[in-house]
Write a structure and sequence with these properties.
Number of domains: 1
Shape: globular
Distance between the termini: 29 Å
Number of helices: 13
Length: 273
């Protein structure tokens, strides 16, 4: 038997997760060198969002809590939506141009897969870094919201934070797959303008989607961010309906799983072309 094959088998990871952990040092180095560039969007922007939209603008919104899905104030209504939107926006920033760069410009993925690491392990490593970024930014957002009395219970705050990882994966895997198959970066402008921004505006983060026309309301309810916003808000307000919550979780999980298989297929094809 070929000695090179024997050596490859001896050093190959036992499973995809073990392989992904071998990339921790790489992603830690990347973050140490680049964290300053994302400090404003990750740590300062959440505070500005809460102050500007929830506190300042919220003073002008005096509506019946029944019209705000049970929220006692506009701040309490808008904060959970902004938390879920922060998870989505972080994902968009991490799996569009960075994925393109690691394939087309720096060709980092080619170096990774030249080792015993497989495409699946490379994707898992990158998604792990994305979840780290989401956890960091949403963790800061959650801490910023806490002093304003947004959370009805401590457990609601903890679960609302954990939901953001599911929201992140629901966006990360399909967008990653889309990015992995592109030949150039020109479609990203449409992804941000016609994808991220409309999702943000019509997710129910700023107003109840029942205020929309019926076709737009139906459209909003099939978007993943609305599911994330509604689930986060239920946990924040302690108004959880178990059936609805399970539907949200199932929808987001299904999207994440489907996106995963698509991502593996797209990146494998791109690396071999």
């Amino acid at each position: 038997m070929d000695l090179d094959k024997l050596d490859h088998r001896a050093t190959a990871p036992a499973n995809p997760f073990a392989g992904a952990t071998r990339l921790v040092d790489y992603w830690a180095t990347v973050y140490r060198r680049t964290w300053k560039g994302s400090a404003i969007s990750s740590f300062v922007t959440p505070l500005f969002y809460v102050l500007a939209m929830g506190v300042l603008l919220g003073d002008y919104v005096t509506d019946d809590p029944a019209q705000l899905e049970g929220a006692s104030s506009y701040l309490v209504f808008i904060a959970p939506g902004l938390l879920a939107a922060q998870a989505m926006q972080t994902v968009f920033g991490e799996v569009t141009y960075p994925v393109m760069g690691m394939i087309k410009w720096q060709k980092t993925y080619f170096g990774m897969t030249a080792t015993p690491l497989s495409v699946r392990e490379v994707i898992l490593g990158h998604l792990g870094f994305v979840l780290f970024r989401v956890g960091l930014t949403c963790g800061v957002f959650t801490l910023v919201m806490a002093p304003f009395g947004v959370f009805s219970t401590v457990w609601g705050a903890v679960l609302a934070f954990l939901v953001q990882f599911l929201v992140a994966l629901a966006f990360a895997t399909p967008i990653y797959a889309f990015s992995a198959g592109l030949k150039d970066e020109s479609p990203f402008s449409l992804v941000f303008r016609l994808g991220m921004i409309p999702l943000f505006l019509f997710s129910g983060a700023f107003f109840p989607i029942e205020n929309l026309d019926r076709p737009m309301e139906v459209f909003a309810k099939v978007t993943p961010l609305w599911h994330g916003v509604d689930l986060t808000r239920m946990l924040t307000l302690d108004t959880v309906d178990l059936t609805t919550a399970l539907v949200h979780v199932a929808y987001l999980a299904a999207l994440a799983i489907a996106g995963w298989f698509w991502a593996v297929r797209r990146l494998t094809k791109r690396m071999s072309s």
